[in-house]
Amino acid sequence: MNFMDGLLLTLLNFVVCIALPKVLSVITAKRQNPSPSTPAIQSPESSGEIPGVMDAA
Fold first, then answer.
1. What is the pLDDT of residue 46?
2. C-alpha to C-alpha distance for 41 and 11, rounded to whole angstroms
3. Distance CA 18, CA 20 (A)
4. In a 3-state reduction of DSSP, which class is residue 33?
5. CA distance linking residue 5 with residue 11, whole number of Å
6. How far apart are CA 6 and CA 9, in angstroms?
7. Coil, strand or helix: which one is 29?
8. Which residues does the chain have with pLDDT short of 70?
9. Most distant CA pair in the chain: distance in Å?
């Protein structure tokens, strides 16, 4: 294999490794349907504070 063949394969590999993940991410992003997110369920008794070590004893 001469120098030009190695250079061509290196450039081709570089383009594929950079461009292919970007193209795949664009394709998969278009396929995914955004589902409506469900709100988090909160307990009415929860104060939102984490008890300390002294409070638990």
1. 58
2. 52
3. 6
4. coil
5. 10
6. 5
7. helix
8. 33-48, 51-57
9. 76
